[in-house]
Write a sequence for this structure.
């Protein structure tokens, strides 16, 4: 499971109502793992990337019911449901069960599964600016981060 921190603030932020917000990008797409997230960083997001589990979803600690520091530390998640919606939906459901208050923006070509209910949704063709906008909207709408 590939994980990398792209941009991360050196000091903890006590006021989660404002940036920088900790963004977890959960995507099995190998292109995402080497992407440049400068637009996200300029918009106030510290980015961490996780490719998630391979064919065996139990490779994911959250699916096993164990803590995952990436999920625990995130303020918002950009979750790529493609290319294996059923398998990825299992990870999404586990993440939502672990942190029901966590704002998640789901990116998918397929209709959203039950696990995505309550999440914001965008299409894979959404521009970077559109993704940033959806993430900002999701994180600012969430009451837990404003208090």
């Amino acid at each position: 499971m590939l994980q990398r921190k792209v941009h991360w603030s050196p000091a903890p932020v006590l006021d989660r109502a404002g940036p920088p917000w900790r963004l977890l990008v959960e995507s099995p797409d190998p292109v995402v793992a080497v992407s440049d997230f400068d637009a996200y960083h300029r918009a106030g997001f510290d980015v961490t990337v996780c490719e998630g589990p391979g064919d065996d979803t139990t490779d994911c600690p959250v699916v096993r019911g164990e803590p995952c520091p990436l999920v625990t530390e995130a303020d918002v998640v950009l979750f790529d449901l493609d290319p294996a919606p059923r398998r990825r939906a299992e990870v999404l459901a586990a993440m939502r069960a672990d942190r029901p208050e966590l704002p998640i923006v789901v990116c998918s070509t397929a209709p959203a599964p039950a696990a995505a209910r309550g999440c914001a949704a965008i299409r894979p063709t959404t521009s970077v600016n559109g993704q940033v906008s959806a993430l900002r909207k999701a994180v600012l709408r969430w009451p837990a981060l404003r208090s």
